[in-house]
Amino acid sequence: MTVPASTASASAKTDIVIIGGGHNGLVCAAYLAKAGLSVTVLERREVLGGAAVTEEFHPGFRNSVASYTVSLLNPKVIADLDLPRHGLKVVERKVGNFLPLEDDYLLAGEGLTRSEVARFSARDADRLPDYEARLEAIADTLRNLVLETPPNLREDGWTSALPELLKTLGLGSKLGKLSLTAKRDLLDLFSKSAGDWLDGWFESAPIKALFGFDSIVGNYASPYTPGSAYVLLHHLFGEVNGKKGAWGHAIGGMGGITQAMAAACREAGVVLETGAAVREVLTEQGRACGVELEDGRQFVARAVVSNLNPKLLFSSLVDPGDLPDDFRERIGNFRCGSGTFRMNVALSGLPRFTCKPEPGDHLTAGIIIAPSLEYMDRAWMDSRRDGWSREPIVEMLIPSTLDDSLAPPGQHVASLFCQHVAPELPEGRDWDDHREEVADLMIDTVDRWAPGFRDLVIGRQIHSPKDLERKFGLVGGDIFHGALSLDQLFSARPVLGHADHRSPVKALYQCGSGTHPGGGVTGAPGHNAAREILKDFGKRMPA
Q: Which of 2, 245, 263, 276 could bond 42 through an S-S bridge, CB–CB 3.0 to 4.6 Å?
């Protein structure tokens, strides 16, 4: 059950204490408890779910607060925790994406994309099936690595090195099954920019914009930044209700996911405590032995698991003296900041876009306001210089078109995922002094493409990068708990030598998105961390 901090006992003992009740913390807790361990989850806020929560932000209007759409949630996690039985229901968008243009538009979705692309380029439409097949071959291979612990490079001799060597050989075997063409594509996708990758495939700006948008979601970069092609690929790992690459909506918002996870935890016997901010990880002779809360209470545990951003954990909660100098330095340089400005708006009605003014299924889509790769590149350059883009990138979803529980009849809620903004403003300026100004700009940007949108807005909720950090612990507003760059992926996430969810402090583990396979509401880091913890406890993952 969930225990308010004010009523919990002055001290407690448990096998495992987990810092942070976000989705990965809940997933990890459920697996550990199902394996027979006693588990306590401590959440700083008064609600479980981390950044995957639903809140009423205007009277009668509810929406996902930070994370806002479903695709990457791992099917094995859904099945193992029996989330549908605990209340999770995910519905597909009727149209995948809608890209407004000055005098036209592009729609994408099942059975739709090729004919739409053909309106702009017959050549691009002909190339699309090969593009999708080759990208899916890579995505399938990497999708199979999502629930694996990466090979971990260490310095403690052959006994420990042998299992890692076997992992490396297994990885090599999987990659070795790829065709030569696929191997070349894999190299390109890990090293090239998304812009260069897409320029090599297509000629029309709309299709490149549609696909290129995924390369800058949560990525404070230009689509022409080397490595951004991998971020595009990362967003293709998911599926909805068995359909690969589909996107959907959790009924009740993203909180529907974490509330189902919390129910699975309660059923397994996990103690879920809210309003419980951890002040310090306690250690004894270099080993984690519990935590102390800000209210002075202590929890004694055989192991501590952190669901926090690695930078936040090791800079704020762990005694620097317990960490090797090189590790501490590298965590200090762990790059965070996704260039994200997140808004929710309450609407008196549906917007009408100049390019497609009639109501329709396109309003259930991810509506991408970024008509070209060049537009995205300018947005990034603006934000680097001025702090935010003069013409920002906005993805808008109107989830109430799929879920009438979120708004009063005839009215709607919209999620605005806005980029690019600087995680820290230049010239010493503070986000608290500019958040309303930038929020107005984001609404005006939508209004340019859907005239009258501004007049529909009857309430709004604003989260600048600074707001995202102080409310959800997203350092620099980073939705992925660390940049998805080659030096911060797989065996190097978060630091080379600690990719197996274990930290330099014995019995201190990590289960958050700052570990493999990275960000998004996947549940995979929580699953993988639980497996490694159970190995150390001499137990197996529950079936």
A: 276
